[in-house]
């Protein structure tokens, strides 16, 4: 019997990111309302594709989710069907089970798979494209570090949460003469720290791309004191690194016989600064996953919706194997073959870093 | 005696817009910290320039204002020194008093005037440039309707306020089966309505650029009912217009002998819809100036700061007569001669309007 | 056959109010987890009871609703089963159909009916109690005007929304020298205006309980000017009344041949003030239903949860015919017979009004 | 020469707390507007009183501070003039320097000293009262643990910040099946954890007053899994304690040769839980001082204002040696002699704890 309408499937992979639901909603609504496609969603990312766990996505299913963080399709981290942990003869072994996924897509009658995820998730998407599956990618990273797109959704939401925290810390820092450390996400790229630092009026921004020198931070605090500012706000990306290994005191912890989590760089830095800066109490806040959840910002809702609509347009035009992206203010697309593995770090010579320096922010370098 | 450093003056003109203080701060800090310039600010826009009312702008003056709406320099609306109301022989007459301003700048030793304002304010800036004054313009409009720049600061803040209001209205609309009307700013351009409508999950968006037909709105409400959605959310720009003059009932008010303010289009529309839609209570909210004040959004703080730094860079490079702007994600500049009078309306065929239509939003057309 | 467990039914009536879902959740969870009761909810208030439209309420149904405005049970306004509009012989007539409701409760096996509503909804609850139904009432009014309880949920949320709007209006009022009018809810009681006025730093608060004199408002604006404050913020309750009928200009509108909605008192007042206050632009904001929806405040979530748990405790103790309430900081209860019709207006001699006057707020009297 | 008006002095002591500025504003405005008193503020708490560092407090000084966290008077921690560190003959020694303070008050002509602070700060206030100084106390603690007053300002703000963080963590926890730990303030009293846990829909609340058993937490997580909830939210007060010393793994850190700060109990608990709970990633957030700063909540602005007005009323009535407080919904006062040292812990048998248990929250006991 002839099949008249297309059937598309969605999945979300990797860590949480505000805007996932907005993409799911935009894809579903556009597919149904504009093209009459059928839409399903695999649960738990690629794992659901392997286990054939899917739910129908209808106008009702995606109702009321635009503003919500999280993903109604759930997600899984690090599940790679090309190198997947399965039980075989009572043992757990890693195998390429991508054929199972391909088979499942066929059985289900899925014409196109829309994959929303970060670099890892999209790598698999590319690999499925190589296997002949019609794939469309939608980039997702809270860190804004994908080279192929100017902005990723979730980033503005994360920066806003961090900025609001900096606003809060300011009043206390000022009236109680404190050094306040705020640790934000960014293991490899310092975008969240950079933008929230500028927006939240930080005095020092520490990012992985510009290794810091403890003494320079102490200097900056001293300079501010001379100007009558008896407090300082430091925003530090998770992945910030010292220039010359001057993190001494907290090394004791790392040398402990047991692998120990210290709650991040902010706490280490607080320990180190405490020895060098007198007359100031130092306090740290670790925002953690509050940056990844909650209500999606206005900016991200619009960007996610644009991505979602664009993904369906690519399907309608049969431009498979591509990822939607934003160039300047224009929605565009790029081959998945070209985007994988290309990250976008903060360039220490970029306009934004210069802007920060111009208004007097120190990078501890 | 030789004057060693430059002196720059700032003024803000026109309606309020979140981000003005952030620009003032960025200009002041960059000018002082990077170039050792002296900075002053004229109060009340051009009026202060005419009356020679200025205050010094120092690191202290601009401390703690980054996130705050409003302008520490105050503003005035519609003050045009080239056509200014002055008393002469006991009568109020309109005169060109721009020479007084030029004289004041000279006496004060101001090298460059940085003007932050909308089309009207910048027109005067251009006219002062023509008179030989070193002028740098910074675009300001909450409506995002300047052709020369992709985005203006204040716009994201306004859209966020409107979106939050839509979020609030949603819960009640849904559980109480209401038609909710939200009136947002936008007399000539519908950008705020368009973006907040997409972000806030509106069912109908009414903007000046796309005249509406009352019956189409009623139709949309009816369609939703058939899908089991017993509520609808309508966001309407102040300047939204009916296609065929079908605003009947509220005409009575307009025909009254006395000019009467009805609190805007939302109330008129509510009156009209009430006659046509049965079984639904209709409620309207008029956000008014809550869209122009309060804390500046993260996005706008960064954009304003970039504009402010860029304005000082133009001064340092002696590129006078220009306005800073954003092209894609790049800060740039454009001659004031070219930017005046060029507005940017919502193009009914633009990607963003299509995105809205794709996910099922009606424009009442 | 012996029935082993109790079955309780919930319904929500009247206008929207943040906290309804929190009560529904707390009743359901406590009933199931602590007592093993079965719980159902009638949809659309009493109408659902009449039409026997109910849904089961389980741990799953009430999951994720604590913070959400609205009510998952929907509501209806003004449906009184003791005087209900029904079709009879082709005509709509008003009849007492309460016996149908009683019959439905019996058929469904409902032991106790929990009614969440305002004075009107609770009047019916009392009437059902008089008919022998086991009823527990939970007070709901955004206006905080129930005599039997010190605080009602929803009120703190509404005050917070109004206060945030006042915060936003402040920055613009100050930098642009505006008179800003904010209209908030409160047709008969001025609590929202009073508390948001104190919290939002208003200069004038107009409430139904203290009729105002236009000239006194103008006087206050003048006094502020003398102190160098060239702006004023006025918060006005919907039901605020003029002392001596000095609302002149806007009468034209009211005298129009067609009943016309002006979008409330704020717009009328703006018209009137505009004639009397020179040199100031006057702007008004009408918050409308944004005060009733959106996320429930922390305070209201806790109060609603306490009410919900207390309602189930009353059931367990078979203390029927009562309404839960808050006295000081203690949860208590009161007979429905005693609470109906007793409202709590703002006492012009109360501590809170005196506090407002002490810090210089005018009531326009 | 006869002195006609009173002069009152304010100081703020101890840690930051939203509402301090609101008290300062209310005291100043009421004192000036209602009684014509002169008002000054000592900077840096008691240290400023010792060093005679004061500023005049006028209507202008306190303008625009109502909503702001922090204190315009600054504060100092642990400065006790009855046991104060001073240099004497080149050495630092502890001395009673309270007479210097008394002398300063006399020289300055201060009639009454208003002290805003927590238990430590108020202890000194009482001691100054014993020395014959006219003192009025205003209670300040974010922890809400003062026995003499039902509610302290700052508490609602802190609970709201924590609740918002829990809201944010929820979406990610749910869609990514995480165990989320949120560490909130509360070294000795668990009020913030208790209220934010109820309001933020936590599954487990750990407070100092109810020691926890790790296994019970693991049990609760397991129970939720059986109900299909693959995530859990745990809110933990800084001072939460294990029942039987089952914190094993993180002991390594504590046994380190160097005193080490781990960023709090949340990180320790995460380490411990990680060993016991499989198949879940565990993430922790440490809110730190974001709970103490930023905008003051609506509730706290009103309470602070009431306290401030009441403090001046006590001065007018010459009821010295007292602290203002809230009993139920009534502002009252209590002798400083009676309030010092009386804290209010969470009673494990209180209604609020029972409410939490009723809706299924575990205390890990």
Automatic annotation (TrEMBL), chains A, B, C, D:
Positions bound to ATP: 15, 78-79, 118-121
Keywords: ATP-binding, Cytoplasm, Glycolysis, Kinase, Magnesium, Metal-binding, Nucleotide-binding, Transferase
Primary location: cytoplasm
Catalytic activity line of the entry: beta-D-fructose 6-phosphate + ATP = beta-D-fructose 1,6-bisphosphate + ADP + H(+)
Biochemical pathway: Carbohydrate degradation; glycolysis; D-glyceraldehyde 3-phosphate and glycerone phosphate from D-glucose: step 3/4
Annotated Phosphofructokinase domain residues: 7-315
Residues the record lists as binding substrate: 141-143, 178, 185-187, 238, 283, 289-292
Entry-linked InterPro entries: ATP_PFK (IPR022953), ATP_PFK_prok-type (IPR012003), Phosphofructokinase_CS (IPR015912), Phosphofructokinase_dom (IPR000023), Phosphofructokinase_III (IPR012829), PKF_sf (IPR035966)
Principal EC category: transferase
Localization of this protein: Cytoplasm
Cofactor(s) demanded: Mg(2+)
NAD is among the record's keywords: no
Active site: 143 (proton acceptor)
PROSITE patterns assigned to the protein according to its UniProt record, in alphabetical order: PHOSPHOFRUCTOKINASE
Secretion signal, residue range per the UniProt entry: none
Function: Catalyzes the phosphorylation of D-fructose 6-phosphate to fructose 1,6-bisphosphate by ATP, the first committing step of glycolysis.
Complex formation: Homodimer or homotetramer.
PANTHER family: ATP-DEPENDENT 6-PHOSPHOFRUCTOKINASE 3, PHOSPHOFRUCTOKINASE
UniProt-recorded name of the protein: ATP-dependent 6-phosphofructokinase
Originating species: Clostridium omnivorum
Gene field: pfkA_2
